[in-house]
Write a structure and sequence with these properties.
alpha/beta, Aspartate Aminotransferase, domain 2
Length: 376
């Protein structure tokens, strides 16, 4: 059976974890945490990046830094993972879902402004499949109305929009290093601060509400509890695992991109015949080969394709159930406008196996199995 996903492993992860143990510093902010953060700061041209225990907690920090309070409204797409919504629900916010674009599966920037009310405080955007939203348009809307924008770039590490790295384009950016992502630390994430305006507060939230970071920089002679916070620091063992992959970032990126490009080229004849739809990558976007998906005619055909591929020894999976139709979505939010594409497109989308180290013979088997479904 060809797995849908296998977590990335480069070979030095265990070696670096042993170094962390020998250093007698396996809690947060050890040498490997600092290495990872510095790599991202330099690579993406930002002043501050902080590793977190997950992409979810990175989003929670972003919600805190956005000053979300009970009764506030946050606009977001319904086609996303629940973490995007949870971060704001925990702050007492009301969710306002808007429709997506059928080409990129991202939030439809033309639907945002009509959803803004006097209670709106933030917009949360999701870079689906590592392809950017229309960020410039969204930021202009946010500036006009005085709103914060949180960029859920959980799938966007290493992608670009108009030459700028995803995760750095809004007020706050959030990455995920879950085992299903291009780079992994098992469970983990990062919050990116494009400016230093919120650095002190971010450090306090991340350090259980204390000013411990200032203490270690020699800015205070002792540290104490100064505000709300939580334990958002990952173990340095996790960071050591991630560091091994950051060192091999180009190798991982190229390997995944080779698979993505092979799928795209090989399956084009099916798209030309109108049997499937392939991903759309806008001209201003450079993606990271996070996933390769196809769209079938409808839900029934997708279900049949999943069964067919499994019979062929290939695990392929669908993705999100739109949040506005979930029990918690009905409880904590509302859909603004008409659901033209969110449900319809989500029911057609199917993700094919794509991971670092996917063997060529397995890749070709996936392709031939897709063709086989159509009797090709």
């Amino acid at each position: 059976m060809i797995d849908f996903n296998i977590p990335p492993f480069t070979g030095k992860e265990l070696e670096y974890m042993k170094i962390a143990v020998a250093d007698k510093k396996i809690c947060g902010d050890g040498q490997f945490t600092k290495k990872c953060q510095q790599w991202m700061n330099e690579r993406f041209g930002v002043p501050a990046t902080y590793l977190t225990t997950s992409g979810t907690t990175a989003l929670e920090m972003a919600a805190l830094l956005s000053n979300i309070e009970p009764g506030d409204e946050v606009i977001l797409p319904s086609y996303t993972f629940c973490s995007t919504a949870d971060a704001f629900v925990q702050r007492g916010a009301k969710l306002v879902f808007v429709d997506i674009r059928p080409d990129t599966m991202n939030i439809d920037e033309t639907k945002i402004e009509q959803a803004i009310t006097e209670k709106t405080r933030a917009i949360a955007v999701v870079d689906y499949a590592g392809v950017a939203c229309e960020i410039d348009t969204i930021m202009a809307i946010a500036k006009k109305h005085g709103l914060s924008v949180v960029e859920d770039a959980a799938q966007g590490f290493g992608s670009f929009y108009k030459g700028r790295p995803l995760g750095t384009l809004c007020d706050f950016g959030c990455y995920s290093f879950h085992e299903t992502k291009n780079l992994s630390m098992g469970e983990g994430g990062a919050i990116v601060l494009p400016t230093l305006e919120h650095r002190d507060r971010a450090e306090i939230y991340r350090e259980k509400g204390t000013d411990r970071s200032k203490f270690f920089r020699g800015q205070v002679d002792k540290y104490t509890w100064v505000d709300y916070g939580s334990s958002y620091l990952p173990s340095d063992l996790n960071a050591a695992y991630l560091w091994a992959q950051l060192e091999c970032y180009e190798t991982i990126y190229n390997d995944r991109m080779n698979t993505w490009n092979r799928y795209h080229e090989a399956l084009r004849p099916l798209a030309d015949e109108g049997l499937i739809e392939q991903p759309t990558i806008p001209d201003e976007c450079v993606h990271n080969a996070h996933m390769y998906y196809i769209k079938l005619k409808d839900l029934n055909e997708r279900s049949a394709m999943i069964r067919h591929l499994r019979e062929c020894g290939v695990l392929a999976v669908f993705h999100y159930i739109p949040l506005h139709s979930a029990p918690a979505g009905l409880k904590f939010g509302r859909f603004d406008g008409e659901d033209v594409y969110t449900t319809k497109e989500s029911e057609r989308l199917l993700r094919l196996p794509l991971y670092f180290g996917l063997a060529e013979k397995d890749r070709e088997k996936v392709i031939s199995s897709v063709f086989g479904f159509f009797g090709k």
